[in-house]
Amino acid sequence: MDHARSTISKIFNGEPRSYTRFNLTQNMEGENSQVEMKLSSDMDEEVGGNGVGEDHNHAKEPYVVHRPAGRTPKSVCFMVATVLLIFIISYLIGYLSHRKKELAPPSCSRSTFEESITQGSVKMEADPVMDWNDVKRLLDEKMSASSFESAFSEFASESHQAGSAGDTVLAKKVLGRFKDYGMYTWTDEHYVKLVDPPASGSNMVTFKGSDLGTLRGYLAYSKTGTAKGAVLYGNYGQMDDLRKLQDKNIALDGRVLLVRSGKISFAEKVANAAKLNASAVLIYPADDRRIGGSTQLFGHVHLGSGDPYTPGFPSFNHTQFPPVQSSGLPSILAQTITVDMATTITREMEGKSAPTGWGGVGKLGDNDDMVTVEVNNVLAEKLIVNVFGVIKGFVDPDRFVVMGAQRDAWGPGFASSTVGTSVLVELARTISDMVKNDGFKPRRSIVFASWSAGEYGSVGATEWLEGYLSSLNMKAFSYINLDGVVTGFPTFKASASPLMNTLIQRTLREVNTLSDSGTLYSAVSGLNWEAAVMEPLRLNDPVYPFITFSGIPSVSFRFTTEGEEYPYLGTLDDTREKLYGATSNQVAKLAVSAGQFAGRIALRLVHDHLLHLDVEKYTRQIRTHVFAINSKIKKVQSMHPQLLPKSLSVQWLMSATGSYSRAASSLATEIDNSNLEDAELCRNINDRIMSVERDFLSPYVSPRESPFRHILVGSGSHTLKALSDHLDALQIDHSDANADLFRIQFALATWTIQGCANSLAGEVWSTDNMI
Prior knowledge:
The chain is an alpha/beta fold. The chain has four domains: 2-103, no CATH class; 169-189 and 385-607, 3-Layer(aba) Sandwich (Aminopeptidase), CATH 3.40.630; 204-376, Glucose Oxidase, domain 1, CATH 3.50.30.30; 617-766, Up-down Bundle (Transcription Elongation Factor S-II, Chain A), CATH 1.20.930.40. It has a seven-stranded mixed sheet, with helices on both faces. It has a seven-stranded mixed sheet with strand order 8-7-15-10-11-12-14, with helices on both faces. The chain has a three-stranded antiparallel sheet with strand order 1-2-3. The chain starts with a helix and ends in a 10-residue tail after the last helix. 43% of the residues are buried.
């Protein structure tokens, strides 16, 4: 309407427009009227004829049509029609301009723009988003130890096993907090197969005919039944440990393997024993003076994640799938025992001497040291609920970072779930308040997720990933895990996709230690920070399915004690008192630091115009694998030319590696030389960055048969590590080695890398297929 009023005023005041010549003058005495209207594009033709020998002074005079004095009906109609037409046009221009300002999305740059039309030109006025230093300051100011103490009290629970009433109560609390913060919320329900202890009686372990005692702890997804065999001590149950037993000419066939917790997951221990034909596995807590001799141990032995009875697809209750089970389910029995029970067994074992450093155990066990294991666990279908809240972005709301924490636990689970849930909710409160009251406008969205059934192998999170696989890896550009973020003091450890290493390093420089004497990064100054901080990505890491199944760059981190693992995870002793004792009562302050670290990563990813994911980091990892494969192929060709012909060249794989390296470098150069004020350009570059992790998922294997499809950090025959292991088997002419299968895997891995390079390069005409 302002535009309409302005236009009408200009009409009656005789102000000319830049694109027309229009003047309506009303004689104040009422004697006559003049109407002057001429499109400027027609002026030269109508004034001065064809322009040859024209009078320039005359040409500058207005073209006037004189009318007799007085108003005729015809002239009045003409005037009314003209005014009405101009009013309508002016109104539409004003309306559309106003709507355009309301609907125009903010720019990808550090400014949003407001348009105003003045005399036919467009004027751009910048409205900058919040400065990054202000974002960090607000995050720090709004998080405090006292707020975490309150959150600990609210979300602590003595009983909240997945699918239980206690789990549901906590879910409602989290959902209520998200709603209180004004977030859009929703839930995600799944009917999954979980495992309970025996409905009547208990699992049993006898040694030389004597019952070892009551077993409350158990291992979910163990095979049920009874197994009997001679006990054999296997240290941590790693393949290197079991090879040492073989080197002593000790066969594992039919033996009951006794191992201690730690180093690798329970599932890997059982899988390793099953490969060597053991009949059962007993696992006890690693010898630690902090843990009681009667402490019961809980866990799961599914070599994978998610519901093992719906592998690769979601367990929604409205869908029906044919009966199927994960190949990661164990084929042998597994059961936990206490330290006291393990001591009873090892004290009476005979046989060969144990290697030095194997936990103080003297003998490995003889054929007469018989053990019977009986497992009667119950498989039950239960409803689990994941809870979500979202803070929507202002530029690309359909792109989001996810922060998540498991909500369930075997017992109190203070370190395993309560602290992580508290950090999740406090971050949701803090960032929501920044948006609502401080004017912070994230470009992209932040999703907060409270998972159920995390103790059973990231079941809730994996089912969500499986349910929305086709859309998540196109829109979720990162996942930040908050499980177990405080288990000790003061060492900081992290595991992540290589794409996130540079961002992790930058964030470590910004988060202070508890003493404020320096940053987390300065604490490892003088060292190789990656060697000091970063850990290998393991199968039981909660971020593992996000990276290897869905292709979403992810990070896990925790404060811990150097050289020690928190001994109470997976036990009923994971209490508030135990964690406070292990951290010198610094849990709340450490939770603040954990919140600052996670919050800074998330906010940096949604604040800046470009995603801070370093695609060049994968180049070194690919080259390391390729170098190893190249040297091993040459050895096999030299030792067994009949297996791998000389015509098999590593050149194709090396060329694909070079293509990826050039594409990554080219993108970095393109970013440096681009106008990052261009919103469409930013989105295009971010899409290419997001595609990298996803494109390392092998397209040649089934998500159901091989869910962890990532060729660099996944598991299965399609990975580069599997190629290297296959070459080791070919070198010794192992019975499992298959040269033809290797060549197929080799070719498919090559083209997976090349495909990732092509996608990273951008348009199809920018691809580099020099193979």
